[in-house]
Amino acid sequence: MSGPVVTVLHEGLTFDIDPADWEDRRWLSRAGESERARWLDAFERGDLYVEGVRLGENQARRQRSAITGKFRDPPPVWDATIEGPTRALIPGLQTYDSFPAFIAPKWWGKTSLITQLGAALVIPGFRFLGVFGPVQVSRDDEERDVVLINPETRPAAFHEDLLAAGLLYDNSHSERALPYYYHPDSPRVLIVEHLRKMSGGPTALDVTDPVKWEWWENRLIERVNGAPLYLVADSITSIVGNQTARARDFASAFRQLMEAVGVAAGLGILHSPMNPNVHTAMEGLESMAEWDGAWFGSASEFPPRSSSKRAFWTMPRMGDPEVLEHTIVLNDNRMQRAIPRTAREPVDQAPSSPVDHGQLEQVVIDKLCQAGKAGLTALELTGASREGEDLRKARDRLASRDPAPIFSIRDGRFTRWFLTEFR
Length: 423
Hints:
Oligomer: single chain
Number of strands: 20
Structural class: alpha+beta
Strand order of the largest sheet: 9-10-11-8-12-13-7-14-15-16-17
Number of helices: 11
């Protein structure tokens, strides 16, 4: 590499950058691990000198570009004949090469939604939230793994949620360098990175630090069976050390990392404010620029309680499908399920004899009225027979209304239902 020796001076820090060290930022390796961030900051913001002469603003900008190789290679060209058309990954929700943000208030149930998403990406035929089509992957992508990065939730609780979703656990490390979750009928596995167990805790994923960026690049490529199919970062608020103003910089660095690693699609988790009427990211509108639209989760009150009404919808960037508002309820296995606000019974599932929906809904209400404040478990309310199936549909129709005459809460391992008047 040809060029002058460049001297960097910034806030008492001085060092030289030799042209022989321009390639791959070898000059940065001379700094101790604890000093690399300071050196990089000095390089980007400090004064540059060549042969004792301070470079002007434009000269310094060009010199930095020469050192980093920013304009060394021509920019890549997108070619439609090579890239091909938009492809669905989760039919009805997300396409390949899409990285939206999921924005919802604290205690909404974001982590449970993520564990169900992880299960949907691994288990054949699994319908995410009960409504979106099973994941569609090409033959080349069948063995690419799914990575969930968990900075906040206790690992044991996260583990139990994944098992409840239908995944199995393997810690033999026989094929991969980390424990993983799998399904016997799928070649893909799910790997969870628990940041609470790493040095630095949640901020271990703060890839705005070039050292951490490089570490994660190597870890994702070398230790997770090549480039992952899908990666979820939950939640960005804790990853940036609760400094919400830095969420924009993290999103930019995170997207660059996904591009460098070759991740096919992913999701970032942000918090909405403590106001049930405001659904934008608490981290500010600027934090949304790098994401491909947003999935939203809302609650009827803050903080959300088990009995609070929850909803899910999306506002995608061009290319992903739009999802209109769905009510979120818990099914009999405590799995989140999305019910369209204008739910209709599918024609091909209609019983051979007419069903009186109003009569079945009245049966549900009468049962809950008799139970009073004690409520009924899902099994006590609907049973498990064919009649139970129709009662469950009636129950779900009632729960999706606005206002809803019934509601449910978690009660240990079960879901318990009540009339709204007993809330």
